Hints:
The complex is a heterodimer.
Chain A: H1 2-21, H2 39-42, H3 50-68, H4 73-91, H5 106-109, H6 111-134, H7 140-164
Chain B: H1 2-10, H2 12-34, H3 45-61, H4 63-79, E1 104-113, E2 120-125, E3 138-141, E4 144-152, E5 157-164, E6 169-173, E7 179-183, E8 191-195, E9 208-211, E10 223-232, E11 239-245, E12 254-260, H5 263-275
Antiparallel strand pairs in B: 1-2, 1-12, 2-5, 3-4, 3-12, 4-5, 6-7, 6-9, 7-8, 8-11, 9-10, 10-11
Amino acid sequence: MIKLILRNIWRFAILVILQVILFNNIQFSGYINPYFYIIFILLLPFETPKWILMLSSFLLGLSIDIFSNTIGMHASACVFIAFLRPHILQYIAPREGYEASSLPRIHYYGFSWFLKYSTILILAHHIFLFYIEVYTFSGFFYTLSRALLSSIFTIILIVFSQYIVYRK
Amino acid sequence: MRTLIKFLLKYYYFLLFLLFELFSVLLVIENNNYQKSSFLNSANSISGNIYKSVSSFKSYIDLYQKNETLSAENSRLYNSLKSSFKSNKISLLEIYDSTYFQQYVTISAHVINNSVNRQNNYLTIDKGKKHGVSEEMAVISPTGIVGIIKNVSNNYASVISILNTNLHISAMIKKNDYFGSLVWDGKNYRETTLKDIPNHVKINIGDTIITSGYSSIFPKGKLIGVISDFEHEKGGNFYLITVKLSTDFKKLSYVYVVGNLLKQEQKDLEKISEND
């Protein structure tokens, strides 16, 4: 149990640093910016108490905010998907339910389940984030297209990372 | 009472969500409206130090190009040295000239963090209070203007880039001195828009846009860019001019912070007139 908590704290720190140093500098044509760090929220164990899920998502968003001068924007988007996660998990649950001590990963539930799961949450996060960033609904479709393009890129990165980093 | 507790228990997650969401949105609004100086920005020492070590690594990658620009600038400066001119002076009298005195001070700085892909972009530079940088100073690069100092810590300062939809800058057309306000529309990082130029003014694609010097922040006549396109605003009396920026914000590395020594005097005077 303690090992699990420590591992997640490590993952938190590494993802924040990776996002700030590496992924925030990937900017195709000035529009597309992947937000890889939300994989932390996606991969938390099923049994995580809800308040921990909410609090850690908030802190994750806030740490990204502090580094990128966008106080509150990432935090609010992360809190939003932390709220959605239990509902989505329930909605797309396999017929026999989730096994005890398994994790929400490709390794346990297969490619199509994971793709569905990550796509819904990433789209929700990116669309929320991009709209709160422009702070207006004028240029609705322009912002939407920016959000969608970045989402596609993040989804590809996160699915690939399942095969490269989190193999077991 | 029991039903209330039951209700709270049933919906506690939703209420928790509302609480956190409200708090984050308040943070966003607070930060957007007042641009408050808070310790939660990239000028603080922890993130400042991390960014500095990252940028010291990054600056190796395009060292060749940077050296090229610096040596070009060096040679330009050497050319303007007194020793590289042959004097035509005949009289040997030295005259103390009280007509001119210094108005602007310049501090060179290195950009250690930068972005172009958000709606409100900021930069961080490696000079701060210790080096004489203070809020509302202008930041320019050898190729054009960059932005305005927002927050200052001891060793670092954050800069509102002109690629920021909240920043308005007074700019003028060089050939006829008509001035308007320069705002970024949040789309292309190579282009910005100039508004409030009346329809009767004759403009052409390729005209140079410079700073007007009215705001007491930027010195007059600093290069911004050239007109790349213009159209008449729908139903208005003004042009909507697209300006191609002369500075490539993705390649920004060395900048100069420019302070106006007479800013306070100008501001005080303007305040008196406003009060009348």
